[in-house]
Design a protein that fits this description.
This protein is of the alpha/beta class and 281 residues long. It contains 12 helices and 9 strands. It has a 7-stranded mixed beta sheet with strand order 5-4-3-6-7-9-8, with helices on both faces. Strands 1-2 form a two-stranded antiparallel sheet. Helix 2 crosses helix 4.
């Protein structure tokens, strides 16, 4: 049997299972056949696949068919070209967050002066670690209030050889307590209010405290109230938000900051997903 024949065999086998997508099949095949990406998988469609490899792929897909995210089954998730270890202690990194990090890379990759960036609510560490690997002259800090999530992030930093300082605590409190100052704050905090907005596979498996909160802006409100304590001269804040939170973000800025500019950026789906706030003293 060729890889192509195996792909369509598996597609037919799981055609009635809503948990199995073509992407899941491709990821499982890439994992077992040690192929880098879907494009390379297609290029190798005419190569033979062993019965034992097909069995291993089927075993993975059987777990996924029972409602587990394939990233948890495989134990890793791709983010900006790196493989991050993930399990049920952390959210699976999302493509939208890749877009946020890409904005930061484009903004700061050519800046020569040293910068200190803090990633608030780091989870798996995907944002901080990706920035540490992509941009020189950065001092990367990462904070999370969940000790189990920090264990995953620290493991990823060691595995990917990224220099990041990790702190356990609520939002910016670890830096405030240490009287530390930063140039840039980046945060992808919980912002989803309604369970109905969450896909069932996410709701059943991923840590709810990492994405569900009411009201959806409350952690960003707290974050804004803290930033004056960690500001040098100017401060840039980059956030990922829910697509309907642009008005409340602007209102929070007006209530909290004296001098600022605010810019909303759309994700690839056309939603207002990212916020850039520049504070001037």
């Amino acid at each position: 049997m060729t890889i192509k024949e195996a792909f369509f065999f598996l597609k037919n086998k799981y055609s009635k299972n809503e948990n199995i997508s073509e992407a899941s099949i491709s990821l499982a095949m890439q994992e077992i056949l040690e192929i880098k990406n879907h494009g390379n998988l297609i290029l190798k469609f005419e190569k033979k696949i062993s019965d034992s490899s097909l069995k291993e792929i089927t075993n993975i897909l059987d777990e996924v068919s029972n409602g587990l995210p394939i990233q948890y089954v495989l134990g890793h998730s791709s983010f900006l070209g790196n493989e991050f270890y993930v399990d049920s202690r952390v959210l699976i990194p999302r493509p939208e967050t890749e877009e946020l990090v890409d904005l930061l890379i484009k903004k700061y990759s050519k800046i020569k002066k040293p910068l200190t960036i803090v990633d608030v609510g780091t989870g798996s560490g995907a944002i901080a670690i990706s920035l540490a690997k992509k941009i020189k002259n950065l001092h990367l800090l990462a904070i999370d209030d969940d000790e189990k999530a920090l264990e995953v992030a620290m493991h990823n930093a060691a595995m990917l050889d990224a220099k990041v300082e990790f702190y356990l605590g609520d939002l910016l409190n670890p830096l405030i307590e240490r009287e530390m100052k930063v140039d840039v704050v980046v945060a992808n905090l919980p912002y989803i209010e309604n369970e109905e907005d969450v896909e069932p596979i996410v709701f059943k498996n991923e840590p709810k405290h990492a994405y569900l909160i009411k009201p959806g802006y409350i952690l960003y409100k707290k974050l804004f109230e803290q930033v004056n304590h960690i500001t040098k001269d100017n401060l840039d804040i980059y956030l990922e938000i829910h697509h309907d939170q642009n008005e409340i973000m602007h209102k929070l800025c007006l209530e909290t900051f004296n001098a600022f500019t605010i810019e909303f950026k759309k994700d690839m789906s056309g939603h207002d997903r990212f916020v850039h706030i520049h504070l001037c003293k």
